[in-house]
Design a protein that fits this description.
The complex is a heterotrimer.
Chain A lengths: L11 H8 L5 H29 L1 E2 L2 E2 L2 H9 L1 H33 L5 H8 L8 H11 L5 H8 L19 H26 L3 H9 L4 H12 L1 H16 L3 H6 L11 H11 L3 H31 L1
Antiparallel strand pairs in A: 1-2
Helix pairs in contact in A: 2-14, 4-8, 4-11, 6-8, 8-11, 11-14, 13-14
Chain B lengths: L1 H17 L26 E7 L7 H15 L3 E7 L5 H10 L6 E4 L3 H7 L6 H6 L8 H4 L12 E6 L2 E5 H6 L11 H11 L7 E4 L10 H5 L8 E4 L4 E4 L4 H15 L13 H9 L3 E6 L3 H8 L7 E4 L14 E7 L6 H14 L1 H8 L6 H5 L1 H4 L2 H10 L6 H5 L3 H17 L4 H16 L3 E3 L5
Helix pairs in contact in B: 1-17, 2-14, 10-19, 11-12, 19-20
Chain C lengths: L14 H36 L3 H4 L14 H9 L2 H32 L5 H13 L6 H10 L6 H26 L2 H9 L4 H12 L1 H17 L2 H6 L8 H6 L9 H32 L5
The chains are: A mainly alpha, B alpha/beta, C mainly alpha.
Family (chain C): Belongs to the binding-protein-dependent transport system permease family.
Membrane topology (chain C): Multi-pass membrane protein
Pfam family, one (chain C): BPD_transp_1
Chain lengths: ~300, ~450, ~290
């Protein structure tokens, strides 16, 4: 029975063994194409970058790490901003993406058209979302301020807010843009997940008199746990590494108020010609990302073993 | 007229005065590579040109026309144009330099120091000397292509200082005399106040709060001997940090007062990069703006209706004296890894030197060659003549040309400038922070002259 | 095999029930429309701005409809730029990356989903590291490699570069969906004497259609939108993609916003049309392919 079969009493370990009774080679034949391809394409650059992190003007050592973790005030600032940016982006994307997916998964006139239209924010080439949102938030000819004038939020003589030009709102504005940009990714993943939920369970629950909220809580949410975990992880990685939106909208400003790790790596690699330090920041970014990644791998392995 | 001629003569001589690198290249090695005519090499050659200029309006069309003419005159050479958006040139150059696959002719929009950092440019000193080109460039323009060791790594395509552009129609509307633009800082502030009308979305003065903040140097420089970012002691090679000198602080305080006290600058000034400022001026959202000679045509291409409605005046100074300004140039270089150095140099010489007068006369981007100054279309142009006058006393800031860490340091200054503009720090604190960051980056190559706390 | 299954949930089972459904549908449509308006506003702004003159795009006060309607921006971008070529380049690269990426991801994702084996944790961690490695740091090494192997300015160079992040992305998604399919199905096939590969191909893959559709959409759009690799690995018009072409309108001295917006619209509308056209194939899985146990 569908997704809920994971909850059936059949022990997982036994299942896995029954699937591969003889040949231990099968799993490797399945996973190797992907792993080998990535290894061929990435082992060298990653190894190279790792080596670079130990190189500096003064020779080999941990200088770059000391510099990043102790001396560089921008790196400290960027870690905090990157976490906020990723956290609020993912929360926003998940809530919005789930909501839209729920609406679109049921019966709805023009459903096919809705589905395509809700994907639109994600169809724009990289630099476009940043440009459009920078423009919406612009303090001089931004459409947001114009709208606030028209609804009477501003008096005629008020000086409009420079959303991207003040430290308190700049990062928030980039998060809004990133939520807009990224929620279709969540939507498409969760929508596919919702289709796999066994509808007979809803039927049964309805007959038992469970209301919509309880059906959602007791049936939908548990069934969506796995795909949600993956979707959140992938969105987290994407937001953590996001470069285009921040670079185009604020370039890390004003006064470093929206400086994130990705813009810092970019500046060191391409504007300051400091490849060693850029690699160090990149490796640190990777390590930070491996925290949720590691949890995911552990959870997966566990669920296979339990 | 005679005044202008006199000025021109002085301009041609200033090279000796600024003479940062006098008498380099005097020892001319006797190499045959450039002595032999390039035409001898057989077979057609394709040169890769990396540029952002062909993407600009209206300069791009004139540049394309020049390239087509070159190909016609040199049937053995084809120019393959690689257009790169302005913001991404350095990204591509870095990748090309690391991959040892540099284009033959490269746009140096990011400044000479990056060429040096990446070892991306071919030393063309000998070629320039062999053809006697050093003398035919305006010295202050050529200097932008000469590194700290006196090597010529690039030739200037256009050049300029910043002057004050002002909307004559706005002056008239506000009851101001369009023939009397502000000369002093006080006048600038008063004029800007008279022009400002927030309800109409109009502000008296446009300022660079996001990119190109280097343009605030113009205000520092004219406020006393220690008003600047840094000063290089050529004997010791030590950079003296001046960003927090009393003169610099006073200049920045003046600029911040325009934004915060007088409110004559758009309220979102820290969002305003170069294109935003150009757009705001062209659209009439700001009435005055300082920028280079390229400004005029750029404004007109953005809004054809403002042709004839703006003037250009000398950059305002504290007391109205003739300004001393930094001169900025766009250089082009030959890629270090080129397989066709002769052809590449021939092409470089063609557009930066031989045909530069054509470009300067049509695109109105500042002239770089002495020949261009003789062209009546340039010398008698009401706008360009202002810039030529300013060039007489202009200087090339060594840190922009020679200091490999300048890009990083600039990015330490910008946030402090922004913090002062939005009022999250007072000017003194902000500039002291910038100074200590400069000191950190420079290490023993730099020294603080003024205490940072 | 199960195209009609989900509809049963909405089958009318009584008058009051049907009335409730209709009300529910109405509310849903209202919410969907409201969200859509917010979602599409930037799109509206792009199109409206592309129909203004450059000057009007940044004039104060802001106009919600062009004061002067003009198609100049479109005329200009098609005259000045070879947009058809950029679009087809982006399409070739995105489609190839997607097909290749989804195929490998499905195959390997199945292995990670179904088997417990030695080094599984290590291999998964490796894939995750590969995916999380900051892409911006790969740009230079990839340029060097592409240069060395003659892949600079070729479709293949871009496709390989894109595969490094699109393939792991697809892999995690496929793995997760496979885990939602009951294991009993594979087991039944194995008991019947099928090889694991047959079981994957004949039984599981057809059931994974919703996942394949979703994964293909994700892979395609990720490739379509990419900028950094496209910037550095292409040097001529031959392979230049739409995202790089759009950025080229952002100039040093001026940005012609109406052109940027027209370019953005031109670069997006084809995708919308393709999605509308193929939505049956792409989203069929999403709409109908509920997994039946």
């Amino acid at each position: 029975m569908s997704a809920t079969s994971r909850a059936t009493p059949l022990p997982k370990r036994a299942t896995a063994q029954r699937l591969a009774p003889k040949a231990r080679i099968h799993p490797f034949l399945f996973v190797l194409p992907s792993v080998v391809m990535l290894a061929v394409l990435l082992a060298l650059p990653i190894g190279q970058a790792l080596l670079r992190t130990f190189q500096s003007d003064t020779g080999w050592g941990l200088d770059n790490y000391v510099r990043a973790l102790r001396d560089d005030h921008l790196a400290r600032l960027a870690i905090g901003h990157t976490f906020s940016f990723a956290f609020f982006s993912v929360v926003g994307q998940y809530i919005l993406g789930f909501g839209v997916a729920l609406i679109l998964s049921g019966k709805l006139p023009f459903r096919a058209m809705f589905r395509v239209l809700f994907l639109l924010p994600w169809m724009f080439p990289a630099v476009v979302p940043g440009i459009v949102w920078r423009w919406i938030f612009d303090g001089l000819f931004g459409v947001l301020n114009e709208a606030l004038y028209r609804v009477g939020y501003y008096a005629e003589t008020d000086v409009p807010i420079a959303w991207l030009g003040q430290t308190s709102t700049a990062l928030g504005a980039t998060i809004v843009a990133n939520i807009w940009r990224g929620f279709p990714f969540m939507m498409i993943l969760l929508l596919a997940g919702l289709q796999a939920v066994n509808h007979e369970l809803y039927e049964a629950a309805s007959v038992d008199g469970a209301n919509a909220f309880r059906r959602f809580r007791d049936i939908t949410l548990p069934a969506m746990k796995g795909i949600s975990f993956v979707a959140i992880l992938l969105a987290w990685i994407g937001s953590f590494m996001n470069f285009a939106i921040v670079q185009v909208m604020t370039a890390g400003g004003p006064a470093n108020a929206s400086e994130v790790f990705a813009t810092l790596v970019y500046k060191n690699a391409f504007l300051y010609a400091d490849a060693n330090y850029a690699a160090t920041l990149g490796i640190l970014l990777l390590l930070l990302l491996m925290v949720p990644g590691g949890l995911y791998v552990r959870a997966t392995i566990r669920s296979g073993r339990d | 007229m005679s005044n202008r001629t006199l000025n021109r003569r002085r301009l041609l001589q200033t090279g000796a005065a600024t003479g940062v690198v006098a008498g380099v290249g005097s020892a001319l090695p006797n190499r045959s590579t450039f002595a032999a005519p390039a035409m001898i090499q057989g077979g057609p050659v394709t040169l890769r040109l990396m540029t952002h200029n062909t993407l600009e309006q209206p300069a791009g069309e004139f540049f394309r026309q020049m390239i087509a003419e070159f190909e016609e005159a040199n049937p053995d050479i084809t120019i393959q144009i690689e257009e790169v958006p302005n913001a991404d040139i350095l990204t591509k150059l870095t990748a090309y330099a690391e991959g040892n696959d540099l284009p033959d002719v490269i746009d140096g929009q990011f400044g000479l120091a990056s060429f040096v950092n990446l070892d991306a440019a071919l030393d063309i000193t000998d070629r320039v000397e062999a053809e006697g080109l050093r003398e035919s460039f305006i010295p202050v323009a050529l200097q932008a292509g000469i590194d700290g060791e006196g090597r010529i790594l690039g030739l200037p395509f256009y050049t300029g200082t910043d002057a004050l552009y002002y909307r004559t129609d706005h002056f008239e509307e506000a009851g101001l005399d369009p023939n009397a633009p502000p000369k002093t800082w006080q006048e600038l502030a008063d004029t800007a106040k008279a022009l400002t009308n927030p309800r109409a979305g109009r502000y008296g003065f446009g300022m660079y709060g996001k990119t190109h903040t280097i343009r605030v140097v113009h205000f520092m420089q004219n406020n006393g001997p220690d008003g600047d970012m840094l000063r290089l002691n050529r004997d010791t090679g030590i950079w003296t940090i001046l960003v927090n000198s009393p003169e610099s602080i006073e200049a920045i305080e003046y600029m911040v007062s325009l934004a915060r006290e007088h409110k004559v600058v758009p309220p979102n000034v820290v969002e305003m990069d170069y294109p935003a400022n150009v757009a705001a001026f062209a659209a009439g959202n700001t009435s005055m703006l300082t920028t280079g000679p390229w400004g005029a045509q750029t404004f007109i291409s953005t809004n054809p209706e403002i042709e004839g409605k703006f003037g250009v005046a000398l950059h305002p100074t504290p007391d109205g004296e003739t300004p001393v300004l930094r001169q900025g140039s766009l250089i082009y270089a030959v890629g270090r890894t080129t397989e066709h150095p002769d052809e590449a140099f021939r092409f470089l010489k063609w557009f930066t030197h031989d045909r530069q007068p054509f470009f300067a006369a049509n695109a109105k981007y500042g002239p770089t060659t002495k020949a261009a100054l003789e062209d009546p279309a340039i010398a008698e142009d009401p706008f360009l003549s202002v810039f030529l006058e300013q060039s007489l006393s202009a200087v090339v800031e060594p840190y922009e040309v020679e200091l490999g860490d300048w890009n990083r340091m600039k990015d330490q200054f910008d946030p402090e400038w922004q913090a002062a503009l939005i009022g999250s720090k007072d000017v003194t604190t902000a500039l002291n922070t910038a100074a200590s960051r400069f000191a950190e980056i420079l290490g023993d190559r730099g020294e603080l002259k003024y205490p940072v706390s | 095999m199960a195209t009609t299954a989900p509809m049963t949930a909405n089958a009318p089972s009584g008058l009051s029930r049907a009335g409730k459904d209709r009300l529910g549908t109405g509310v849903k449509v209202a919410i969907a429309l409201l969200l859509l308006v917010v979602t599409l506003f930037p799109m509206y702004w792009i199109i409206i701005s592309s129909l203004k003159t450059n000057l009007e795009t940044h004039s104060v006060p802001v106009t919600f409809l062009p004061a002067v309607w003009t198609l100049d921006a479109y005329q200009e971008i098609f005259e000045r730029r070879n947009f058809a070529k950029y679009l087809s380049n982006a399409m070739v690269v995105a489609v190839a990356t997607t097909l290749w990426g989804v195929a490998v991801a499905a195959w390997s994702g199945y292995g990670f989903a179904r088997y417990d084996f030695r080094y599984k944790g290590a291999l998964m961690a490796f894939v995750l590291i590969a995916q999380s490695f900051p892409r911006i740091l790969l740009v230079i090494p990839y340029f060097e490699l592409a240069n060395r192997f003659g892949l600079k300015d070729t479709y293949l160079g871009l496709i390989l570069a894109y595969s490094t992040f699109i393939q792991p992305l697809c892999l995690w998604i496929m793995k997760e969906y496979f885990e939602q399919i009951p294991r009993e199905l594979d087991e039944a096939a194995l008991v019947d004497g099928a090889t694991p590969y047959r079981a994957f191909w004949d039984i599981i893959l057809p059931l994974a259609r919703p996942a394949l559709g979703a994964t293909a959409i994700i892979g395609f759009l990720t490739a379509w939108n990419e900028y950094e690799f496209a910037l550095v690995l292409t040097t001529t018009e031959r392979v230049r993609t739409i995202s790089v072409a759009i950025a080229s309108f952002i100039g040093e001295f001026t940005t012609e916003w109406n052109l940027v917006m027209a370019a953005a619209a031109v670069g997006t509308v084809p995708v919308v049309i393709i999605f509308l056209f193929f939505q049956r194939q792409l989203m069929h899985g999403l709409t109908g392919g509920a997994v039946k146990g």
